[in-house]
Amino acid sequence: MGNKRKDREVQSDDDEPRTKRVDGGKPQLLPSMIKNKDKRSALYAKLKHEKKTEKRKNAKAREALENRALELGEELPPKKIPRTIENTREADETVCRPDDEELFAGNDADEFSSVLNSKRIPKILMTTCRFNSTRGPALIKDLLTVIPNAEYYKRGTYDLKKIVEYANNKEFTSVIVVHTNRREPDALLIIGLPNGPTAHFKLSNLVLHKDLKNHGNPTGHKPELVLNNFTTRLGHRIGRLIQSLFPQDPEFRGRRVVTFHNQRDFIFFRHHRYIFETKEDKQNDAKDKDKDTGEEKKTLKGKIIARLQECGPRFTLKLTSLQHGTFDTKGGEFEWVHKPEMDTSRRRFFL
């Protein structure tokens, strides 16, 4: 026992001290080094307050420098750009460039060109998987209010290939299939017609229209479409697939916006109504004092603000595969498939 205790003491002496060095070289006591809960909480609160005070001090100093630069007519000091996962992403050769002539030439010959050039009117067929629950048709009911010219057909016992063949004969431009698992929608299949492609998305974080707090009711106007951060060749193709679901002549009078925002390969879907209002602010201006009475005049300044009201539904998509042509599980050729080994880096994105 004595030898073991001596060995522990020798090891503890050889270990580095559990202190943090500050700029002056003095060791700083950390909360994790204190065993007493009350003292540890007090030290943590003190360090947090000091950090907040330092941050406020730096903000005031930066504001003073900006005001001085404006008075002297000099250039403003450069703003520090925080390091994020997005702006430190790994370099990707497939990122689209504005001067990529090959990309624009391919747009005129791809499967979506007839719809996006307004030669064909988008017409969408929506259905569910064979064994669906009430949440699947409820999601489709919400999507029918989002996507114009969409129709719902009950799946029954029909094979998906038969449905695609029927949709081609009826001149539909796309087929959307909502897949459910354990009574909850978990996947979305979008099939472009007549020649594909077929995109399979994982669906999560679903909130239906009726479950949104203070939700709005959309009108029947054609919505505006916003696509954000689809920067790579694959993302550009997925963006054009989503764009082909909506008419290319939005009715701005309806003030409806449908947004697909891509961030770290997760596509966030939102549906809003917007309105612009003029807000009047009463401001006391010391320069507007009346010379005779010395009273301050109240000036009304109108500020235009935008208010949003979410209409729903709300969900998140993640691409799992993109297949050439229409749906074919056996002989289909895949353009892109997500694999587990692709997730080795947090800074690698594909859309």
Task: Compile the SSE list and pairings.
Blueprint: H1 2-14, E1 20-21, E2 27-28, H2 37-72, H3 101-107, H4 113-116, E3 124-128, H5 135-146, E4 150-152, H6 160-169, E5 174-181, E6 184-192, E7 198-207, E8 224-228, H7 233-243, E9 256-263, E10 266-284, E11 298-310, E12 314-323, E13 334-337
Parallel strand pairs: 3-4, 3-5, 8-9
Antiparallel strand pairs: 1-2, 5-6, 6-7, 7-12, 9-10, 10-11, 10-12, 12-13
- Large-scale geometry: globular
List low-pLDDT spans: 8-17, 282-289, 296-300
Q: Give the % helix.
A: 25-40%
Q: What is the SS-derived class?
A: alpha+beta
User: What fold name stands as the CATH topology of the domain at 101-279 and 303-342?
Assistant: Rossmann fold
Task: Report mean pLDDT, rounded to a whole number.
Answer: 84
SSE run = HEEHHHEHEHEEEEHEEEEE
Q: How much of the polypeptide forms β-strand, as a percent range?
A: 25-35%
Give the CATH H-level superfamily of the domain at 101-279 and 303-342: Brix domain
What is the highest CATH level, the class of the domain at 101-279 and 303-342? Alpha Beta
Question: How big is the Rg?
Answer: 29 Å
The number of strands is 13
DSSP helical segment count: 7
Protein name: Brix domain-containing protein
Region (Disordered): 1-39
Biased composition (Basic and acidic residues): 1-24
InterPro entries: Brix (IPR007109), IMP4/RPF1 (IPR044281)
